[in-house]
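Entry 14. Structure prediction run on the chain below.
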Amino acid sequence: MRIALITGASGGLGAEFARQIDRDEKEIDEIWLTARREEKLRELASRLAHGTRIIPADLADRSACGRIGAMLSEAGAEVGILVVCAGFGKVGTSVGIGRDASAAMIDLNCRAAVDVTLTALPFMGAGDRILEICSTSAFQPFPCLGVYAASKAFLYSYSRALRQELMPRKIAVTAVCPYWIRDTEFIETAEDTSGDGRRPVRHYLFAGKASPTARRALRDSRIGLAVSTPGIICSLHRLFAKLVPRNVMMLIWEGLRRL
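Output returned:
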């Protein structure tokens, strides 16, 4: 049985990946969905044509991946597609975001992403694919988004190294680096950092949507790209981050977030 395993599948980009895999990935037999919100997972599963398996789990709980691994082993599953989408961000000053939220971001965006990847790898083989959902923020330091951007830079670097390691096994790894996505809960969650009413980012200019982001990321994964920048803004950002000094890029960001 060849499955797609999607973390962070209860909403937003994770749910959109599930819908598009359900529609377009013909060699997948089942779709396994994991996230904290069981009701949302069940609602999504009811709308998919594939058989599904629901795994209510908080990947911040270090026992969660052990349970997922045991389920994979018991089912005799091959993970044809792994989408590591669980994660969150906070916008604001480091002091305003605080220790607890910063530690939680690092744990979920870095430690848990590696943990679930290593859990799935023994069940993967030639032709299988991993999509690590990073961010365009991985390409440079971002004041007022510092911990989130740093956590995604970690995941981006890990994805690039893992791709090289897995080439002999013919397992493709794609680091997916989208720009802001407007039609998900990400921005609302990111802004919930303090009660002072101020918005560190006043306007999310040129923010994209989940459906074309997931579609392009899956296409880039199918053709074996190491990095997917699913949209013109994140593609330009990746280019300019290679050419423009980081101090200048941070000054540009300071101007944009105040517009």
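Residues 2-258 form a domain with the Rossmann fold fold (CATH 3.40.50.720).
Filed with the rest of this week's runs.
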